[in-house]
Amino acid sequence: MAKATTSKTHEKKAKQKAKPGAKSKAKQKAKMKYDLLVIGSGPAGEAAAMNAAKAGKKAAIVCDKPNPGGNCTFLGTIPSKAIRFSVKQVLQFNNNSLLRELGGMKKLTFQQALTQAERVMDEQGKSRNDAYERNNVPIHKGMAEFVDGNRVQVTEGKTKTLLEADNFIIATGSRPYRPDEVNFDHPLVFNSDTILQLKHSPRKVTIIGAGVIGCEYASIFAGMKMKVEMINPASSLLSYLDTEITDALSYHLQNMGVRCRHQEHFSKLEYHKDHVITYLESGKKIKSDILLWANGRTGNTDRLNLGAVGLEADSRGRLQVNKRYQTAVENIYAAGDVIGWPSLASAAHDQGRAASNAILNPDELHYVNDVATGIYTIPEISTVGYTEHELTEKKVPYEVGKAFFRNIARAQITGDQVGMLKIIFHFETLEILGIHCFGDQASEIVHIGQAIMNQRGKANTLKYFINTTFNYPTMAEAYKVAALNGINRLF
């Protein structure tokens, strides 16, 4: 009996000496090897991994959340747009005299809207899990960090897994920028991620930042009848958009009760138990129930141990890539928000697929630069192509055709009469140069124009819309109305 005990003791000591933690990372043997390992499970990561799997390659993803989908599914695009849709439904109900007669005015709380968003998030998570399973793409849960140019270590709790791959795509996305001078631990201070943890419906909200996220949440809160103060360092909203579109957005936000404070800069915050006071550099101070910080984003690269492979992110955590989505390291690529522009879920998906093709099927590589912008304010905005300002600077002769939704039969039927479609076309050739839409379904409507802009020869001119028969009544008919309006300006 004593001999058996001694034998077990020696065996235990031998195992302790041999445990992985006693070896350096460089000497560990990888458990699995892949043709392509994708770090991140948002739109870019999903598209990259699926594309590789369908090409017959051995691909896997690393996911740092309970379910794949990334911030897009669980913190950003999906929840915010689902909340917006609930708000818009209630606004439509309250603005419809017939429905009000049947059911009276309705009021929506943030928690009710969030419940609907959680349902969508759950459905999205399940569908993505199913897709990975159908395509035999393994999901490694945990945080990834590079060991060297062909291996990463994935850590989940106390479990560490070493994975090897010939190529990598970094698709880790981004997160809200958190300056040191803002106390994000205070229960009344939120960013676009943590706002989903809001447990009550405040009466007044201050939003610092007037970019896409700031404008979207301003319209959401205003649609819930909250008072909104939006602090904008610039002289106007979304200045990269067509001026008429931004002017229309400003007007309708103000009409909803949003106060836009342009050319104002945040100085400091004063925190209280039941309110926050925002001090501006101009000397003004604003008291509100909560504060939403919506001023910039940072790429999720700080935990990747990029130094191990000789990579370095910029000051906002973004990686630089070439037109093949390749970083400075030959077998490491990047796509999505982690590389910056345009930081849209739609573009991230196409960038992920393109990066995957750059590795596996270069003939199919398509660099993503034709991107329609969708901004889900109430009403929404979507644009593609040049603005009037850009064409004026380039000295390109152009003309404009417009269709106002109040004159479109379908908009009169639905009651969504706010908005317009604007077509910018070349004065001489009639080539479509830009499409700008403000109003209900703008993000859907814009793609008709985008498709025509991408045609070659005479197929991408204003005459396409004039000579095409559109269903009636539809919102698509606005293209014919705008085209006729534009052609009439030439004579």
Note the main attributes of this structure.
alpha/beta; FAD/NAD(P)-binding domain; seven-stranded mixed β-sheet; 14 helices; 22 strands; globular
Question: Can you put this structure into words, describing what you see?
Answer:
- By secondary structure, the chain is an alpha/beta fold.
- The chain has 3 domains: about 30-75 and about 110-175 and about 300-365, FAD/NAD(P)-binding domain (3-Layer(bba) Sandwich), CATH 3.50.50.60; about 190-295, 3-Layer(bba) Sandwich (FAD/NAD(P)-binding domain); about 380-490, Enolase-like, domain 1 (2-Layer Sandwich), CATH 3.30.390.30.
- It has helices at about 1-20, 45-55, 70-75, 75-95, 95-105, 110-135, 210-225, 245-255, 345-360, 390-395, 410-415, 440-455, 465, 480-490, and strands at about 30-40, 60-65, 140, 145-150, 150-155, 160-170, 175, 190, 205-210, 225-230, 260, 265-270, 275-280, 285-290, 290-295, 295-300, 330-335, 375, 380-385, 400-405, 420-425, 430-440.
- The strands form 5 sheets. Strands 1, 2, 3, 4, 5, 6 and 17 form a 7-stranded mixed sheet that branches.
- Helix 7 links the parallel strand 9 and strand 10 (about 225-230).
- Helix 2 runs parallel beside helix 9 (about 345-360).
- The longest helix is centred in the first third of the chain and has 25 residues, at about 110-135.
- The model is unreliable at about 1-25 (pLDDT under 50).
Question: Brief description of this entry?
Answer:
This protein is α/β, with parallel strands linked by helices. The protein has 14 helices and 22 strands.
